[in-house]
Write a structure and sequence with these properties.
Strand content: under 5%
Number of strands: 0
Helix content: over 70%
CATH superfamily of the largest domain: Hypothetical protein af1432
CATH architecture of the largest domain: Orthogonal Bundle
Number of helices: 15
Number of domains: 2
Shape: globular
Amino acid sequence: MPIPTSIALFVTALISVAAFAAVHWLRKRSRAAAIVPVAANTETEALRATPEPLEPIAYSTEAIEEARTQCLKLAFSVARFDYQIFADHALVIDLVDKALNEAAEHHEYFPRRPLLLPKLLQALNDTESTRQELVRLILEDPTLAGTTLKRANNAFYRMSAKPVESLDRAVALLGVDGLRGLASTAILQPVFRLPKGFFDRFADIAWEQAQRCAAAAQEHAQTSGNDDPFVAQLLGVVRALANLVLFRMTLDKYRQSPNVLPRAEVFVRVIEQHRGRLALDIAKTWQLSPTSLDALDEQRRGISPRDMSSLGRAVYYGELAGTLGVATHHALYSSDGARAILISQGLSAAAAATLLQAAQDIDVRS
């Protein structure tokens, strides 16, 4: 019996719809299957792209300690240190410990804060200060006045062949930033002078290191824009000053035993044990700001530079760059080796180069 045409058309249409649905289902399934590995790959790539945690940075490393040791050998004019300390020499260390504990109450050994320091700090930070006011302040300190004139006659600042003989002209040439660069080191320069005796080179190297550390700390603060460059510079000098005070204390204790010849290792041991604490105590007696005290306390505690305040980092990297500046100046290290140490402590290559250059550019004769 023949199938009516209408039924045949209906069946044909039904088959076509079923076929279309089947093809659509298969394509959808195929696309879904294809999406799974793509999603998995994307997740894997995302995991791979997650930045790894930053490597911890220690306050000190073997490379840093070696650089410091080389500078100490230079300061004491010795080829090596023998850290076996016995008998009378060990007694000297005990006497220094006792003197430091007493000094914390009586400030017997602490250098006095230069009278000019707070006034100059205020004037340099006051945008309303006139050049005449700065000149008047500088004239109160002969060392600062002489250093200001000498710096103004540097080829970098001098505008003509005629020497700068007026302090007013010198201040105008240097500007506030230039004055910041020499103020604290010039004011404290007399403190770094010692009478001749044992280890005569120590004071000169301590003064050189103070200048280089201060310059690098100032550069770090100025570049970061977070801190007062003058304050960073001052704290760099205070850290170096602590070394000199400890040297004097140790020498004084040796004088109580005139038959005992001073040993460099004893001075080094005292400096390593007490410089952080003493620098902080000096800053307290000078009534420096809580921010400054915190920055110095971070050095005393030896925390990672990543965990320091911005001022603490300026002091830390300034001191490290200053030490390396001494080492490169005396051909103990190459500039490449010094920069590598700074980079290993978290600085970028550009920042390491800038800080080291600031430390190296200091004229240690001024």
